[in-house]
Amino acid sequence: MSNLSIVFICLGVALLMLLAYASTRPSDFRVERRLRIAAPAERLWPLVSELRAFNRWNPYERKDPLIKGQYAGLAGGIGSRYMWESDKVGTGSLEITGLQPGRAVQMKLDFVKPFEAHNLAEFTLVQAADGATDVTWRMQGPANFLSKLIGVFIDMDKMVGRDFEDGLQNLRQLVEARA
């Protein structure tokens, strides 16, 4: 057997081991970040429950000033949607699916490009005794095999989590500037 054959066999075995390892990764994911903001929940609520207001602090909107967005449905009610196309943040849509006024907003997040994904996002507001509000941004969804394979090399929690942290800081700055 030639040295080249041995190299190809070793590469094939390494590839099979990588694919086998990726298949053992969790079948779903969850990213969550929290931030305490020095403002009452009623001041934050309009900024998380209405998509146009959300996009004022949304970190993904800020990543691409040329993003093409379109709104549909009521301004802040269940069923309101935002669809976008961007060379930098992909193509997809966000739809409000649930509202608990002053406390929580649930959204369906669908990506078309750069890859297809269907996730759930949620914002929760918990009023603290000192008048501040604990804001939580979470996203969860299924992890298909490609996601599992990418997850071997890229920590999605760190990558997406950084964006969530930036977004929550943007929200803090917006709310505290209004005070």
UniProtKB/TrEMBL annotation:
Gene3D superfamilies: 3.30.530.20. It holds the Pfam family Polyketide_cyc2. InterPro entries: Polyketide_cyclase/dehydratase, START-like_dom_sf. It comes from the Bacteria. CDD domains: SRPBCC_1. This is SRPBCC family protein. The lineage of its organism: Bacteria, Pseudomonadati, Pseudomonadota, Betaproteobacteria, Burkholderiales.
